[in-house]
UniProtKB/TrEMBL annotation:
Family, similarity comment: Belongs to the LTO1 family.
Source organism per UniProt: Aegilops tauschii subsp. strangulata
Protein name as annotated: Essential protein Yae1 N-terminal domain-containing protein
Domain of life: Eukaryota
Pfam families the record matches: Yae1_N (PF09811)
Amino acid sequence: MDFLEPMIALDETHYQDGYKDGYDDGMVSGKEEGRQVGLKLGFQDMMKEIRLKFRVITGSLGAKLGYEGRPTSSEQDLEDI
């Protein structure tokens, strides 16, 4: 038995403990970040669907909305239709 084996085993134990702690922390933060991204993307998809429905309704009614402010990308899309 080498006299350095206990130190290597201790080092390996610390490595495994650190890895496990980091992995567990990453799982918690990863799930939270994934939840936030999912909510953001879900909201964006929902807004796209609402905008599309709104365009269909206003187009079928022949309505044109006037806006005096600075145009945004969604308003530019309405003008393109």
